[in-house]
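Example noted here:
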Amino acid sequence: MSNLDGKSKTMNKKNHLKAALSLATSALLGTSVATAPVVQAKEVDEWQFDSAFLLYSEADRVTAGEGILAGTKTFDDGEILALKITVDALTGASANGAVAQPQAQTFTRPSGNGQYEIAAGETPLDDTFHDTRVQLNAQWTQLIADNLTGSVGGHFSKEYDYLSLGVNGNVAYDFNNKNSTFSMGLSYFQDTFTPEGGIPKPLSSMLVGDSSSPEWDKEFAKTRLGTSEDKTTADVLVGFTQVINRRMITAFNYSYSMVDGYLTDPFKVASVLNNQGIAQDYIYENRPDSRVKQSTFMQAKYHFDDSLLNTVADVSYRYMWDDWGINSHTIDSRFTIPIGRVSYIEPHIRFYQQSAADFYKPYIMDDEVPTGFISTDYRIGEMTAVTVGAKYGVVLNGGNELSFRLEYYRQMPTNAGFVDPDGLNSIDVYPVVEAIIAQVSYSF
């Protein structure tokens, strides 16, 4: 639940607005209650704007910059219009899935135009990774009947090689003297992927050699299936929000997601190793063409009394499982601590742990026949991750708010029971990923 900001005036909003806020924390644009944006209204017919710039930087890997501008307007009859535009740019080096080797390695770029070399002992990273994304979201919320609020929205996102379109609808019902809210949301997305170089043929070998050869284009085309692929995503989310007392509010969610279509990453390959751990080949990964994900989510916010400086504690837990064999646990906690009358600090700690997909392998041995589903992508492997940081905010003249956030992220892939060949003893097969996250936000 995102509609408790630790201030007593939150509980005194208009009755129908509480249901609207519940909608914003449920299935808005396919996001979970843990990540949905907050809908905060000023006076009727006034716009509330929230802006932010975020910088995400991994050590020696990807760097991303993101700008966000969101506007919310409440009309005379309580209708709420929410608009949001997001622009982000990514650049740097991305892991291609191959395992590090005791000698240098050469790979062909996804486009088929040119090659790149990775030094001995280094994790193979494609340093041509770059993209720009523009995303537009719109949401309309209004009272349908006594204690019943409805919301509809749309989503548009465009990258260089990716197009995503989505719609959603949500309802929220208040009861128990408006201390309880039941909500339900549905969303549907249609995505089209057109990667440069086309769609690789699953399990085919990466073509490596002289790209200036007259036969190169013809041979490269044999490793492609086509130029584009599609996928669809349908999400259902059911939520329940309960006000316990004037200091505490809780939320419980269950979500069900069905994804069908092209789910393979066309930029990932798997190393084929001999018994000494030396790469003999690189083949393109292959993932199932469907995925069903389910999750449960629980959250509680508590506003402590004056003896604890009016601190607001926000603690949540999420459990996710799917038919790929992945399950994950996420514990997220924030503590908003006032500093004087106009500023606050918000320490943040997040812990994440997941198991590996059934078809995940860090590499393939050459005595195995590469059939079925295979992926070496560490993002679907076994891992733990920790985020630690803090946010500082200050309320300016006129009620506007300025805040700064700085966090450290550490992702630690682990061995899910694989016995590495002797040739990899000196190689870091599961490298740690570290990142710094910095954000500046301004609400007016």
Summary: DSSP finds two helices and 23 strands in the chain.
